[in-house]
Amino acid sequence: MHDHAPAAGFRDGDSRRLLAVSLAITSVVMVVQVIGAILSGSLALLADAAHMFTDAAALVIALVAGIVAARPADDRRTFGYQRAEVLGALVNGVILIVLASVIAVEAIGRLIDPGDHEVAGPLMLVVAAVGLVANAIALWLLSSAQRRSINVRGAYLEVLGDLLGSALVIVAAVVIILTGWQAADAVASLAVAAMILPRAVVLLREVAGVLAESAPPGMAVAEIRAHLTSAAEVVDVHDVHVWQLTRGAPVFTAHVVVDATAMADGGGDLLARLQSCLADHFDVEHSTIQLEPVGHVEPDDARHA
Questions:
Q1: Which fold has domain 2-211?
Q2: Are the beta carbons of 287 and 6 closer than 8 angstroms?
């Protein structure tokens, strides 16, 4: 007895179109930043351009994962391909950590040995401002879809980091223009690296939670069990399992012991009410509930949460 309603997510065409537009914006600005970094000699601009490159890669991964995740379930992959989103997010997290390390090493090297690096502050400022505006547009485009998809969430976090990175580059450029302190460029680069790392850790922690089939954040098994047992016909709830295929796609299974009145009509009415409870109170649209009469004993007598 199940409810196999499709989970909401970014696997619809509108969200994929948003990702495609964001990818186009990111790619164009990345090229502009690379050219600007070469002409101005700014490490901070180059770091921001490198981050934009990973953003572009993240958006490509998100688009591909979204197309794959939209494929229907089959006899071998009975839940479909929604985990493709999670694998894409895993790749994004690893790229972020590598990027942060490379930027930090180069920035520290410049602080220790400045050499003859001369940064053109005005050009640096103009290019960073272009990046700020472009990132703000991309962030706005992704803001809605990221609430429903772990993979779009990864892309959203990267664009958010780029927005803040562009703001830091702008500040460094203003400092260089006003004071001539060239080290501001390397300091801004270190700040970009420091900003990337925590986001990567948060994303990888969420990926690990999904792959470990942990209960989604904010979803307590005890509270779910209490809601189900509040129904008059329900005697006991056991073998409860809650996990998520990807962000916004929680899955619930349980054995529910019911009295004789509930079983008289086959349990159809009670089952509908329990599944409505799960959908309304916990946003669980995919639930599998096994109704059992009082006194039912499982073959192995196995019980879980």
A1: Alpha-lytic protease prodomain-like (1.20.1510)
A2: no
